[in-house]
Amino acid sequence: MKINKVTLLGHKDHGKSTLIGNLLIATKSTSKERIEEAEEISRKLGKKFEPAFILDSFYEERKGGLTIDTTRAQIRYKDMAFEFIDVPGHSELIQNMLSGASYANIAVLVISAKIGEGIKKQTERHLFIARMLGIKHLIIAVNKMDIVNYKKERFDEIKSEISKFLSAIGYEEKNVSFVPISAYTQENIMKKSKKMDWYSGKTLLEHIYAASKNGRKKDYGKSIALMQGYLENGVSCTVLSGKISRNPFYLIPGYDKYGISKIIVKGRSVKEAKTGVNAVIYSNKKFPADIRGKILCNEKIVPKKRFGAQVFLVNNLENPTLRFNGNEIKCNIKIKKVIYPLRNKTINSIKPLEAAEAEITADKALVTLPFDTLKELGRFTIYSGGKFSGFGTIKE
Questions:
Q1: Shared domain check, 94 and 143
Q2: Is 219 part of any domain?
Q3: Domain range holding 123?
Q4: Which of the chain's termini has less CB crowding within 10 Å, N or C?
């Protein structure tokens, strides 16, 4: 069964971990022992039962109420399986958010309806990053409705405000859903809430299920495999698009042709490996030593040293390098204009926690495609002085 990845975004203390905990309980996807452990920890800390303790791994998290690292939990709903990825909500841990969100197809933004919480800068930042990472389907879960007495007016207020921001950063209205919930009391999580009878839409899980049905990945026209390294006298690879079969393929960069003599998937010899599959391939012709990061393709793709991109920084740039599909390459990053925070005038310098349109010049040619065409060949991370400094998506 395919596992659909769902990222939970949002500011700290807005209820992401509580939501996952109660999703595990509601769908019977956690053991009785884990629930009892969470109940015992809650008692020791002098708190009411906290579902978030089912998944938090560190005592410091339980005591401080923060999620320190990316946490994953799997549930089953109807005929689908979902992996919920709870990423940190505080800016110091944004690298973990990037690694968690970048593999998801759907994002759920959890935002508190409590007065004084609501939409924060971190809320907007997470939404912008989700947009950059190509997460098409967005579900806004307006949480803590129990604290505001389930008032429709508060839900409408948040919906109106956040809709304006989503429109400004390029989200299409048809790909965004809103649902009022209480993660703690399970209102509108799996079952319709009688306390919010003014809401006639889907529950949260119904929204996620529908988005998964409508969000199947469209295959890129070419057959492409990313080479990862030597394994068992063959070369390991991941099929990014199309299928790899026993036909001649170009190894790029270079354009040398290789015939595929054997394909192994999960220890078995197969005729072809399809999109998303990890395989070991063999050829009668010896592959080069610097195989990592190269691609096999049934057509020629021209590698590039210069390309346009959007970049998001978490640290200042100083002698930056790109990490792209297993390779680290020195580069120059020329900022053209800041695109986040949203401004009315062009600014061509960038600070941490900002995003910009940029021109990238790498020291060697790379096999790239626009991010909207094929994510795996259209994204990179940025390092400066050996430290993670941001990420980027290729636009042209």
A1: yes
A2: no
A3: 3-214
A4: N
387 close to 315: Cβ distance less than 8 angstroms: yes
The tokens 């306390």 sit on which residue? 195
Using alpha carbons only, how large is the chain's radius of gyration in Å?
23
Decide: 86 and 20 in contact? Cβ < 8 Å.
yes
Report yes or no: 180 and 195 within 8 Å, Cβ to Cβ: no
CB 140 within 8 A of CB 164: no
> Are 142 and 96 members of one domain?
yes
Token pair belonging to 265: 């998937």
The residues that bridge with 227 in the sheet, in sequence order, are: 237
Q: Does residue 248 form part of some domain? A: yes
Q: How many other β-carbons are positioned within 10 Å of the β-carbon of residue 215?
A: 14
What is the phi-psi region of residue 141: left when phi exceeds 0, alpha when psi lies from -120 to 50, beta otherwise? beta
pLDDT tens, 175-202? Answer: 999 999 999 899 999 999 999 999 999 9
Residues 283, 153, single domain; the answer is no
Q: Do 260 and 236 have their domain in common?
A: yes
The tokens for 21 are: 């905990």
Rounded CA separation 108/210 (Å): 13
pTM over 0.85: no
Measured distance CA(210)–CA(117) in Å, rounded: 29
Nearest of 113, 211, 206 to residue 161 by alpha carbon: 113
